[in-house]
Amino acid sequence: MPYRSIALALFLLVGPAAALAQSKVLFLRGADRSGGFLEAGNDAERTEHLADINNMQTFSGNHGWGELRLALEEAGFVVEQVAETAENASGPADGIAVSLETLPLADYDVIVFGSNNAVYDEAAIDAAEAWIRSGGGALFISDANFGSDWADAPNSDQRFLDRFGLVMNQDQGTYVLERDQSDFDQPDHPILDGVDAFDGEGVSPIVAQTQAAVIAGAKNQTRVNEPPFGGENQGQSRPVGVLDGVLVAIDVDLGRIAGHFDRNTFFNLNGAGTDINRFDNRAYAINLFEWLAEPTSAGVVFRDRFEPD
User: Fold this and answer.
1) Does 298 reside within a domain?
2) Quick one: what percent of the chain has pLDDT higher than 70?
3) Which domain CATH number covers 169?
């Protein structure tokens, strides 16, 4: 029986959660030594700031996503990572973009635009857009320390997000989002199922096109990634509005996009600022990835990696 038929039979028999058991996730990581401009003092620290999915360190203030990877694998996901390439051999580095147009994107259900901070060309952006519109799920997470200045990481994301009318802000703020404080704009959204609170530290909200795309709104002030810039390309602060989202989620043709406001939410135990073990951060993470990997609301849609009948 062709893979598509097997997947369809499994979906109808046991439901979406079991049918997603072999969903594949690809994390896009920055180049070695391209991160940590605000805090890192050596090459090892610059790389450690990039939230590597193989980083299982639990020292106080760590920046690893190893526990996130394990949580996803326990939930049935297959998790891989690809990294941008450093332009130099030592010291602070600029990254060379991954050639997304040559990767087998159809093999993946979810791509995490995580600590990427390189400049991507039109061919890579076209490939990512086509993959999303044909059924892929993309997650965007920015952070100042994913790059060599305030604008590196949001700039890298923005070239992709321009295709979908979303805007990535720079880091500013630390807060918790709580159900009983009415912080959830759409409390019944599947990503928030069983989630009463999640948090972030040094957060980068995403500006949505419409209020309907905001699942949980941002608080207080945000820092825009646009001129006039201050030192090290730091943007100006402004009060948040109704389109500034801690969590933004949209359907795009057959695919989905989510923007989450902070890398720290998913750090290993004792992570800097917060970690995946605090509040309901772990449950929130699993819900987020399952939503991205599910068929869209338009109907039962399977990724291109499934062979046609």
Assistant:
1) no
2) 89
3) 3.40.50.880
CB 292 within 8 A of CB 72: no
pLDDT, residue 19, reads: 46
Residue 175: closest CA among 248, 262, 114: 262
Enumerate residues 6+ apart whose C-beta is below 8 A from 221: 172, 173, 237, 238, 239, 240
Torsion over CA: 130, 52, 259, 169 (sign)? negative
Separation in Å, CA 292 to CA 61, 169, 228, 296, 306:
29, 22, 35, 9, 17
> Would 97 be classed as within a structural domain?
yes
Half-sphere exposure of 50 (CA within 13 A, CB side): 36
State the angle between helix axes of 122-133 and 152-161 in degrees (0 to 180), rounded to the nearest 10.
60
Residues in the chain: 309
Q: Which parts of the chain have pLDDT scores under 50?
A: 1-20, 298-309
Contact call for residues 308 and 5 (beta carbons, < 8 A): no
H or E segment to which residue 78 belongs: strand 78-83
Per DSSP, the residues of 236-249 read -EEE--TTEEEEEE
Residue 119 sits in which domain range? 3-293
- Count: domains in the chain: 1
Closest CA to 194 of 282, 277, 269, 261: 282
